[in-house]
């Protein structure tokens, strides 16, 4: 099938996104701010991006009519949700420019392929084994235990993962996960986690955001902290170089997030990639002169990529639905007025109709002149939010 290369799309063109979640919403906001029209494909009539987009096609991601409608409306299409089937992107690519390409998204959608790509790029990842059959399960070396068994596909926010200590626990976990293809990873002694957002243009040019330092709670990102020196400089450049070589190896066009582990002995190990802007890059909306969503617009529209500059220290706090239930079982709006009295507090809400435990409802970006000030304000915000 012939594909359509990205070419320059000036403001006034229509940019489409597969998926109507918060990432699609913030992409659409960035595109609209730059004078583009937007189209969203998502079956949910109430989706965060669908509600604010010029066009909203309400079909499943793999509906041929929906995809054809999207292609006819749009000058280029991207994705915001890594579980949009790669075949949908491949089908679209025959009708309009698509970035990132289905082939790159397919690698990010499958932990086994993803790990093979890291190895091919010469970037160290966790020792691991692919488990697709009972024979492969039986042959797993004990050196990988204790470990984490992860489904090869469709995992996110720590879902589809089981921590295992012994071979017997591993066998039980594989059954529990439905005997689907999995990757077993050795449990690594983490010092901390970080990530890098890379944007790569159709001409192969790359720019990146500064390295983000991330804190997860229960498998979900809770806090991101970014300032000069938040990660030792040698480690930061190693992470940026690794992220760029992973993007180059995929001939990637678009915004890519690469997540890393920093081990207690100081080694850097790549964890996984997301073929889209990422929760850990949200701080860029307020702390950088170019956000990850503007980078996404620029890569899709063939616009020049300029190296973003961090102009403030930042702390990003994820706002999960749990914050609506600090007073009991009835949802109550958190005290935004008090939070917004804090200097440098920027509230981003995704317009989701109902708060639920564990659901990402929004985030709070806190910017300040110094890391200490940003951290102090973040602690105040966290105390207010209870
Ligand atoms: P998800 O796709 O759900 O984000 P990850 O593979 O990133 O899945 O795992 C979620 C979190 O679990 C990581 O951010 C890290 O805190 C922890 N984790 C995952 N793999 C390992 C590992 N091999 N060793 C130690 N901790 C891990
Ligand atoms: Mg992750």
Automatic annotation (TrEMBL):
InterPro entries: ATP-grasp, ATP-grasp_carboxylate-amine, ATP_grasp_subdomain_1, PreATP-grasp_dom_sf, PurK, PurK_C, PurT/PurK_preATP-grasp, Rudment_hybrid_motif. Pathway: Purine metabolism; IMP biosynthesis via de novo pathway; 5-amino-1-(5-phospho-D-ribosyl)imidazole-4-carboxylate from 5-amino-1-(5-phospho-D-ribosyl)imidazole (N5-CAIR route): step 1/2. ATP binds at residues 111, 150, 155-161, 185-188, 193, 216, 271-272. Keywords: ATP-binding, Ligase, Nucleotide-binding, Purine biosynthesis. Residues 115-301 form the ATP-grasp domain. The keyword ATP-binding applies. GO terms for biological process: 'de novo' IMP biosynthetic process. Its EC number is 6.3.4.18. GO terms for molecular function: 5-(carboxyamino)imidazole ribonucleotide synthase activity; ATP binding; metal ion binding; phosphoribosylaminoimidazole carboxylase activity. Pfam families: ATP-grasp, PurK_C, RS_preATP-grasp-like. It catalyses: 5-amino-1-(5-phospho-beta-D-ribosyl)imidazole + hydrogencarbonate + ATP = 5-carboxyamino-1-(5-phospho-D-ribosyl)imidazole + ADP + phosphate + 2 H(+). Belongs to the PurK/PurT family. Catalyzes the ATP-dependent conversion of 5-aminoimidazole ribonucleotide (AIR) and HCO(3)- to N5-carboxyaminoimidazole ribonucleotide (N5-CAIR). Homodimer. This is N5-carboxyaminoimidazole ribonucleotide synthase. It comes from Paenacidovorax caeni.
């Amino acid at each position: 099938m012939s594909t359509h290369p990205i070419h320059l799309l000036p403001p006034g063109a229509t940019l489409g996104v597969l998926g109507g979640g918060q990432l699609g919403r913030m992409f659409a906001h960035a595109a609209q701010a730059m004078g583009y029209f937007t189209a969203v494909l998502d079956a949910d009539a109430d989706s965060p991006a669908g509600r604010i987009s010029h066009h909203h096609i309400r079909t499943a991601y793999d509906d041929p009519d929906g995809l054809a409608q999207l292609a006819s409306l749009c000058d280029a299409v991207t994705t915001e949700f890594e579980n949009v089937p790669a075949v949908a992107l491949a089908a679209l690519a025959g009708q309009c420019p698509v970035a990132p390409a289905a082939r790159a998204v397919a690698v990010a959608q499958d932990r086994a392929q993803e790990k093979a790509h890291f190895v091919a790029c010469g970037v160290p990842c966790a020792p691991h084994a692919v488990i697709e059959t009972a024979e492969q399960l039986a042959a797993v070396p004990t050196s990988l235990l204790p470990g984490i068994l992860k489904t090869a596909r469709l995992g996110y926010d720590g879902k589809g993962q089981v921590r295992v200590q012994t071979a017997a626990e591993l066998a039980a976990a594989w059954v529990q996960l439905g005997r689907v293809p999995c990757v077993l990873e050795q449990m690594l002694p983490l010092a901390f986690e970080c990530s890098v957002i890379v944007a790569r243009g159709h001409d192969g040019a790359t720019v990146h955001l500064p390295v983000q330092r991330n804190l997860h709670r229960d498998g979900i990102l809770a806090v991101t902290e970014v300032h000069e020196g938040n990660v030792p400089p040698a480690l930061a450049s190693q992470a940026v170089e690794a992220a760029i070589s992973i993007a180059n190896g995929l001939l990637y066009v678009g915004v890519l997030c690469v997540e890393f582990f920093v081990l207690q002995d100081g080694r850097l190990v790549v964890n996984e990639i997301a073929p889209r802007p990422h929760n850990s890059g949200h701080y860029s909306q307020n702390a950088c002169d170019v956000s990850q969503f503007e980078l996404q617009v620029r890569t899709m529209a063939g616009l020049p990529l300029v190296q973003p500059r961090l102009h403030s220290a930042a702390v990003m706090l994820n706002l999960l639905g749990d914050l609506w239930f600090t007073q009991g079982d009835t949802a109550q709006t958190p005290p935004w007025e008090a939070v917004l009295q804090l200097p440098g507090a920027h509230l981003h809400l995704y317009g989701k109709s109902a708060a639920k435990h564990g659901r990402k409802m929004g985030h709070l970006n806190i910017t300040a002149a110094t890391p200490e000030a940003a951290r102090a304000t973040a602690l105040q915000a966290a105390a207010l939010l209870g």
